[in-house]
Amino acid sequence: MKTRQKQRQNRKYKAETEEMLDKRNGFGVKDLTPYNAVARIKLGSAAPLLLE
Q1: Rounded Cα gap, residues 15 and 5, in angstroms
Q2: Rounded to an integer, what is the distance from CA 41 to the centroid of its chain?
Q3: Phi-psi region of 17 (alpha: psi -120 to 50; beta: other; left: phi over 0)
Q4: 24 bridge partner residues
Q5: Please, are residues 33 and 19 in contact by the beta-carbon 8 Å criterion?
Q6: Is there a smaller number of Cβ atoms within 10 Å at the N or the C end of the chain?
Q7: Residue 4 CB: number of other CB atoms within 10 A?
Q8: Nearest Cα to 36, choosing from 49, 23, 45?
Q9: Can you give the chain as a three-state secondary structure string?
């Protein structure tokens, strides 16, 4: 059984981590528009567009 301290650490870790972007939309079709938009924001306009 987990200790209370370990549960608190896990909750804190989950709250601090950033949610990953899905490369697929709600219908299961690959849609890289949001992924590419975030990459361009992070890296500036030098980010290559991924079409994979």
Answers
A1: 16
A2: 14
A3: beta
A4: 30
A5: no
A6: N
A7: 7
A8: 49
A9: CCCHHHHHHHHHHHHHCCCCCCCECCCCCECCHHHHHHHHHHHHHHCCCCCC
The token duo for 45 is 């306009």
pLDDT at 46 over 80: no
pLDDT tens digits for 11-24? Answer: 888 777 777 777 78
d(C-alpha 45, C-alpha 39), whole Å: 9
Q: How many helices (H) and strands (E) does the chain have?
A: 2, 0
One-letter identity of residue 43: L
Whether 8 shows a pLDDT value over 80: the answer reads yes
36's enclosing H/E stretch is: helix 33-43
